[in-house]
Amino acid sequence: MSPASQAKDAPLLEVKDLQIEFKTEGGVFRAVDGVSFSVRRGATLGVVGESGCGKSVSSLGIMGLIPTPPGRYAGGEVLFEGRDLLKMSAKDRRGLRGGRMGMIFQEPMTSLNPVYTIGDQIIESLRAHRRVNHKEARERAVELLDLVRLPSPSKRVDDFPHQLSGGQRQRVMIALALANDPELLIADEPTTALDVTIQAQILDLMRDLSDRTGAAIMLITHDLGVVAETCDEVVVMYAGRVVERASARDLFQAPMHPYTLGLMAAVPRLDEKGSRLETIPGSVPPPWAMPKGCRFASRCPLATQQCRAEQPPLRAIDGDRLVACWRAPIEEIAA
Amino acid sequence: MLRTIIDRLLLSIPVLLGVLLFGFLLLQLVPGDPARVVAGPTATPEIVAQIRQEMGLDRPVLVQFWAYLERMAQGDMGRSMISNKTVTSELGAAVGPTVELMLASLVWSVPIGIAMGTAAAVLRGSLADRVVMGLSVAGVSLPIFFISLLLIQYLGVVWPIFPFIGRPGPWYTPEGFMALFLPALSLGLILIGPVARMTRSSVLEVLKLDHVRTARAKGLSEIRVVLKHGLRNALIPVITLIGLQAGYLLGGAVVTETIFSWPGLGRLVVGAILSSDFTVAQGAVLLFALGFITINLIIDILYSILDPRVRK
């Protein structure tokens, strides 16, 4: 294999054993505790988990948007094309942010600055990363707004955010994130705050744009339906750790971690009308009282003495599937 | 924008009418007989009665009010009961120095206060932050007469750099400019504290907002994030505060004007009240109200410049 093709096969983003801590009045707690995953070029990775599992913190950590203090990178590496972002100078990192890495946030209503026009905000991003004059940047901004299918973009470019609906603002956010042709697009629950009909449109748009531009997407969500529809690979997180990593197809066909299984059972299905939805008993342990063993043990029907005593490592089962469970694979036991 | 201005102007009409009524009632309610004040302590009852008739004080209150409105509409506020000059000319002579002093103290203290507050917010918890906040507490707590006296002592007497008595001319003359220095310095020192505090808390508030995170995600430099996406959005409460402070300064920085023998409104009004010069006091009340209305109008216009959501 030639070095060039090796580089091509190497993941675009590789997160290795990332640890992020927050200092609070109640002490230091680790929101992300040894998380590892990778995103291939042009692929879509889904990161799933309940709120508070560390998925948003991980994504902000990759972008370098964790306020420090109170946050702190306690260890690990974030390799973007082989270069460790955590060791880069602040200036180099800023060059990547909004340039080769774009981000879309959960709250379209508040993510744009209310006092500048949407055009100004896109132009600002363009001019932060390329040598273009105002006129060229403005033309490109109109193009981008057209790309995200905002109606009459040449007029709306001068609108202020409050003149747009939530869905339109999220389109503007996508235009902003795509402004400098990023190779990686991180989307943190991009559709959670939107109406269901708009959700589908925004997801379609993202998928379509990623196909066209070849950008890889890291999609953070708690919605398994969204994952099933859009993602190539999936990382399931629980209480700051990765509990399962697999291709989307494998994951939905045969979830291996009891938590993943529980999540799927909690999704309503049309073909099983009338039966009550499953819930996972108990709740996520609070950060200041993380158990010594498996963090899911207290809610897991299959937990054993070993689960409560020792933390299960993320290990390979069935080739390339990774599961952090002492008892995996669990199909036989569950059956 | 024009719409906003017209709306605000129309809204000020009832306020102005209310103030006119209040100014009129003031004269009705004050203890002491205006006619007797005008006549002087040695006047006979006949003379007092004659003056009362001349001033219209013997007519029904409503008739008096109407006559008062008519006169006001013509810009006639009557004559000072003490100096016998027209109230308009008395006030006119004092407005200039007061506005001059107000602007001179705002023009340097507001930018410094905003800069200090922003720096303190960005460096929150650092030594610089604590120094700025400590200074601003000191600025708020020290009485202005004390600061003024210190300034006079050190910049006027020990090192006689600046004059500190009176106003030899307007600010654009060399003497006037020098004379303005110390009073503007002491008034401005009082303003820096509140402006810095308000800016600090407002900037801290804004820097927590989602759109600032977006600005950072765009890869903008920290300075740009703070100034363009933080400070700009944080200015509204600061502008409100400055407007209020400017209003009080306009109302006459009485103490400062007294200490520096500044011939402004504050001194004029206090003098008028102490000598029961009702017509001057009444005119001053109206003028202050007009001043507040103007300042509020300016603030409203600034709001709509700063925040497009306010625009119609």
Automatic annotation (TrEMBL), chain A:
Q: Report the GO molecular function annotations.
A: ATP binding; ATP hydrolysis activity
* SUPFAM superfamilies named among the record's database cross-references: P-loop containing nucleoside triphosphate hydrolases
One Pfam family, short name: ABC_tran
Major subcellular site: membrane
Instruction: Tell me which Gene Ontology terms the entry assigns under biological process.
Output: peptide transport; transmembrane transport
Subcellular location, record wording? Cell inner membrane
Q: Which top-rank group of organisms is this from?
A: Bacteria
Q: Which UniProt keywords apply?
A: ATP-binding, Cell membrane, Membrane, Nucleotide-binding, Transport
Topology of the protein relative to the lipid bilayer: Peripheral membrane protein
Which Gene Ontology cellular component annotation is one that this UniProt entry carries? Answer: plasma membrane
Domain (ABC transporter): give its ranges.
13-264
Family, similarity comment: Belongs to the ABC transporter superfamily.
NCBIfam families, from UniProt?
A: oligo_HPY
Its protein name is ABC transporter ATP-binding protein
Q: Please name the source species.
A: Pseudodonghicola xiamenensis
Its lineage opens with:
Bacteria, Pseudomonadati, Pseudomonadota, Alphaproteobacteria, Rhodobacterales
TrEMBL record, chain B:
User: Which Gene3D superfamilies does the record match to this protein?
Assistant: MetI-like (1.10.3720.10)
Indicate the transmembrane segments per the record. 101-123, 135-156, 176-196, 234-260, 280-306
Q: Transmembrane: present as a keyword of the record?
A: yes
Domain ABC transmembrane type-1 stretches? 95-303
- Single biological process term from Gene Ontology: transmembrane transport
InterPro entries, per this entry?
Answer: BPD_transp_1_N (IPR045621), MetI-like (IPR000515), MetI-like_sf (IPR035906)
Output a single Gene Ontology CC term carried by this record: plasma membrane
Q: Which UniProt keywords apply?
A: Cell membrane, Membrane, Transmembrane, Transmembrane helix, Transport
- Which is one Pfam family of this protein? BPD_transp_1_N
The way it spans or sits in the membrane comes to: Multi-pass membrane protein
Give the location in the cell.
Cell membrane
Where this protein primarily resides, as one coarse class? membrane
**Quick check: keyword DNA-binding in the entry?**
no
Q: What's its job?
A: Part of the ABC transporter complex GsiABCD involved in glutathione import. Probably responsible for the translocation of the substrate across the membrane.
| Membership in a protein family | Belongs to the binding-protein-dependent transport system permease family.
Q: What is this protein called?
A: Glutathione transport system permease protein GsiC
Q: What is the organism of origin for this protein?
A: Pseudodonghicola xiamenensis
